[in-house]
Design the sequence.
């Protein structure tokens, strides 16, 4: 007989099944799921973040928004929590699970790409744990789990523990398909001048205030002309257009995330620094091929 319940609520994340114990540190969680009987775990309010399941024994059925499949032993699943609907755990199933917060993932990817990450990653992968990225992730997961089991207090306070979690994030971002997937050699761009990086950091921090190009240049430590030339050479656009695209992508993310009765188009526009609704709609349609009202 299959029992049904909601997955346990942990410190960092909303719903994670963890009958064999769990540990949390900063933006990361790791747990060992051991189920002697059949169980169903539902994800009524999934948190933001990426889940990694490494199946050790038994069978786990995974129900997502758009697909359903069985994860057998020796396979690994990486998926956003928001895409999960139900896990059916068969008796004697065991897996190591890890959770990476959305904030940690976005920060890591922003550093890799050297540009702001405005959209959901849509990362998804199912792979063998005996070769390639699957083998590397499984090895690191076992190392982390053994460290916590041996001395949870020491493992939780060690800087190397966070570095191991971060190494796993890098493997997933470089090896698994997602919205921002690019060849590994294109992840970093050392040739991008520091003044552009400083300008983008300033834009991100003041995005809703719509800073002008003079403010951006001052923050970057260069003249307006030098900033414009650098953006044209390395980003193929102007600082103003780059900032506008960042704001438009932020507005689109909000429109996709909130129901129409929760927040109006004008509320979203103002939140991202757009005060003229007509120009906002025109810019939005030019960027995304539809009006803001059609995104809902």
Sequence:
């Amino acid at each position: 007989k299959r029992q049904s319940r909601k997955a346990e609520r942990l410190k960092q994340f909303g719903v994670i099944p963890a009958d064999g114990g769990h540990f949390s540190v900063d933006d990361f969680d790791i747990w060992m799921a051991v189920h002697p009987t059949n169980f169903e775990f539902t994800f009524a309010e999934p948190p933001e973040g990426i889940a990694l399941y490494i199946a050790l024994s038994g069978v786990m059925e995974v129900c997502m928004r758009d697909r359903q499949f069985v994860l057998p032993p020796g396979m690994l699943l990486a998926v956003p929590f928001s895409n999960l609907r139900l896990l059916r755990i068969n008796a004697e199933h065991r897996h190591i699970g890890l959770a990476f917060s959305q904030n940690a993932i976005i920060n890591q990817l922003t550093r890799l790409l050297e540009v702001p990450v405005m959209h959901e990653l849509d990362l998804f992968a199912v792979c063998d744990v005996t070769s390639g990225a699957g083998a590397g992730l499984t090895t690191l997961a076992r190392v982390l789990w053994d460290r916590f089991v041996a001395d949870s207090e020491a493992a939780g306070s060690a800087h190397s523990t966070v570095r191991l979690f971060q190494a796993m994030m890098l493997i997933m971002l470089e090896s698994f398909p997602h919205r921002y997937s690019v060849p590994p050699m294109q992840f970093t761009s050392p040739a991008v001048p520091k003044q552009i990086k400083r300008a983008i950091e300033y834009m991100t921090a003041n995005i809703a205030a719509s800073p002008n190009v003079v403010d951006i240049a001052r923050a970057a430590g260069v003249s307006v002309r030098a900033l414009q030339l650098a953006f044209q050479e390395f980003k193929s656009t102007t600082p103003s257009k780059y900032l506008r695209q960042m704001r438009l992508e932020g507005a689109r993310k909000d429109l996709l995330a909130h129901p129409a009765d929760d927040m109006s188009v004008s509320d979203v526009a103002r939140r991202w620094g757009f005060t003229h609704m007509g120009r906002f709609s025109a810019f939005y349609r030019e960027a995304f091929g539809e009006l803001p009202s059609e995104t809902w």
